[in-house]
Amino acid sequence: MNSANFNSTATVNNVFLFMLVISVFLLVAITVTMIYFVFRYNRKKNPTPKNIESHLMLEITWIVVPTLLVLAMFYYGWSGFKFMRTVPEGAMTVKATGRMWSWQFTYDNGIKSGELNVPLGRPVRLLITSQDVLHSLFIPAFRIKEDAVPGMETHLWFLPDKAGEYDLFCSEYCGVNHSSMVSKVIVMTADNFEAWYEAGEKAEGAKKEAPVPQGAQLLEEKGCLDCHTTDGTIETGPSFKGLFGKKTIVITGGKEREVIADDMYLKNSILHPDRDVVKGFPDIMPSQEDNVSEKEINEIITYLKGLK
Fold first, then answer.
1. Which segments of 80-213 are extended strands (E)?
2. What's the pTM value of the predicted model, to 2 decimals?
């Protein structure tokens, strides 16, 4: 198989149709045979039953034929699987990171996006991992799905062969907001993708010149706003609005206590969120130790101080 002529969609569709044709044929053949036997060997026509001990050819047939069919389906499926796991040369690599509850896609030039932007007609290789719990990246339109595992990198590839927008889901139940972990695959023409890529590259260059990204940008980039809000609305976690300096009831070691949301509390909540869990909210936030630097934490806290 050559990726210039085949893609994951055609591969999976062909295997599925092959198995479907065999299944429908067997269903029809068995049903017709059963109906025939009902009429051909009913009690009225055969009042005295006969004891048939064996039929060698029949026994050989129902062993050999199903075995050949299963082997054919296995071979066809295995060939498709090998094709889908063998990344073609020249594929563009994008790192996909699953986190509660959004996806982040990182490109070779440092661009980070919540949507997967890809060029039309060029194979795309996804390096997949998870920041917290098990997720599973699923793009139905391209018939691909792969688990995102914490501390492990998996991969898949696909060929975007038609421009447009396609749904991207998490198909592994990953917590209370699992159903909202939805994104898009945006397939662009080569020129449009190049323009988007270069614009992102310039933006990344400008960010590198600045000491540290601003807090609001960091909250978005790190996925904090998937659970928290900045307008006072309560979602999975407490809102950031008015949080700094507020008296808060937390559960520490199974006991309630009152704390002040100061710099140290906010820093500990980012790095060790399971130590002091705000009363009334689930203990589901993962540690961000490997996700944020000291400077980024300070920038986030500075921003939260201003959310009165």
1. 92-99, 102-106, 112-113, 116-119, 124-130, 135-139, 144-148, 154-158, 164-170, 182-188
2. 0.71
Looking at the fold, whether 203 and 145 belong to one and the same domain comes out as yes
Q: How far apart are CA 33 and CA 40, in angstroms?
A: 10
CA distance 227 to 102: 10
pLDDT in tens, 8-58: 788 888 889 999 999 999 999 999 999 998 888 887 777 777 777 778 888
Overall number of domains in the chain: 3
Specify burial of residue 191 (Cβ count, 10 A radius: 0-12, 13-18, 19+): exposed
Q: Is 2 among the domain residues?
A: no
Alpha helices in the chain (DSSP H): 8-40, 56-85, 190-209, 215-221, 263-271, 294-305
Helix (H) or strand (E) holding 260: strand 255-260
CATH code where residue 123 lies: 2.60.40.420
Whether residue 105 is found in the same domain as residue 122: yes
Contacts of residue 145, defined as CB under 8 A and 6 or more positions apart, other chains included, come to 136, 137, 138, 139, 156, 171
User: Is there a domain that residue 261 lies in?
Assistant: yes
Q: Are 285 and 237 in contact (CB under 8 A)?
A: yes
Interval 221-253: pLDDT, tens: 788 887 888 888 888 888 888 888 888 888 888
90: Cβ contacts below 8 Å, ≥ 6 apart: 122, 123
Q: How far is CA 44 from CA 39, 47, 95, 179, in A?
A: 9, 6, 71, 59
The stretches of 125-214 forming alpha helices (DSSP H) are: 190-209
Q: Print the domain residue range for 12.
A: 8-85
3 occurs within a structural domain: no
